[in-house]
Amino acid sequence: MEKHCVIIGGSHAAAMLAASLRQEGWEGMISIVGADPTPPYHRPPLSKGALNGDKSDNDLLIRPAEFYEKNNIDLVLGCDVAKIDRNNKKVILHDGAEIAYTRLALTTGAKVRKIPIPGSGLEGVCYLRDLRDAHQIRKFIGSGKSAVVIGGGYIGLEAAASMRKMGMNVTVLEAQPRVLARVTSPEISAFYTRVHNEEGTQVLTDVSIEQIEGEKFVSGVRLANGRVLPADIVLIGVGVLPATELAEAAGLEVDNGIVVDEFARTSDHDIVAAGDCTRHYNPIYDTQLRLESVQNANDQAKVAAKTLCGKLEAYRALPWFWSDQYDLKLQIAGFSAGFDNVVLRGDATEGRSFAAFYFKGDKLLAVDAINRPKEFMLAKRFLAEGKTADPGRIVDESVDLNDIF
């Protein structure tokens, strides 16, 4: 049988893995099988340019359709995979069609976490994970309309900023005492709350929702205290879960993600996995991580492609992320979980530019840089090299950045 790599999932990781396979010399067949009817596209703009109409569907494509044709990469789109038959090395689609493989790659990504709120089935109650979701949301948004965003994480805040910039009345509801509580420090949370308030977005924390109101279409959100917030659209953004169902059913090891080794191999070495769906060991932080980021999807996909081509190269990448809201460019270098001290360079209580350095003891873990590209780039480089920084010199902006590491 001719070599055939089947990639399940039309994600960032899928696009990078397919391209990298050709770059690494894979001469066999390559197929990308995805439930989405569109070729792999950029996901971050879904809460920004795709929401407000600045970006067309074609603008979002990671690579033009001609790229796949030129590189003999077969796109099997709009198809759900029902089962992986490892014994016979076949992928079985929902319509019963079968695709044989010699190597398999899982880039299934993540799915939205849904919450059982009464009224959540009304029209105008939306989630945002793919292009179809963005198209649906655009039916309900517009200047002068009211939006309620449930969830004060990055996706919720980005979407809130986009809708506010369109002239909508926007309220963000967060169950925790502060926005971004699961991912960042109180200083960053307070900063984003201030900026959203300055821009005219209402941010309510420590809230409990009783129900979403309306007949056929949503009309409002009733809180536990009896207050009703009018809404033409309710956007729910309360996180994602790794899409591991196929892997579990196939008997692969799964633990908050598809478990892979340093070469992106699953417990079946004929199957690799990359991206949001995976859980892997990160040697920089000496811990198991599951990351939801474009960086991880791309870097891990490159390693997976090398592995499939017989070029074992261990995955060792520093996690980094970003978020765009209003005129803010947040760039995060590293992974801050477990921090016990935060040192600020710049003022977080006024203006819109500063950096937060996260420490655990004497070790620098991560840096959140808001409109501070130089801090981000230096931190990214030095964290990857295992260097730390002098907390006492960080706060003194007269000290050159190169001298604080």
From TrEMBL:
Q: Which organism is it from?
A: Zhongshania marina
Name of this chain's protein: Pyridine nucleotide-disulfide oxidoreductase
Domain Reductase C-terminal, chain residue ranges per copy? 320-404
Q: Which UniProt keywords apply?
A: FAD, Flavoprotein, Oxidoreductase
Q: Specify the superkingdom.
A: Bacteria
Show the SUPFAM superfamilies listed in the entry.
Answer: FAD/NAD(P)-binding domain, FAD/NAD-linked reductases, dimerisation (C-terminal) domain
- Please report the stretch or stretches of sequence annotated as the FAD/NAD(P)-binding domain: 4-301
Give this protein's Gene Ontology molecular function annotations: oxidoreductase activity, acting on NAD(P)H
Matching PANTHER family, A to Z? APOPTOSIS-INDUCING FACTOR 1 (PTHR43557), RIESKE DOMAIN-CONTAINING PROTEIN-RELATED (PTHR43557:SF2)
Cofactor or coenzyme needed:
FAD
One GO cellular-component annotation of the UniProt record comes to: cytoplasm
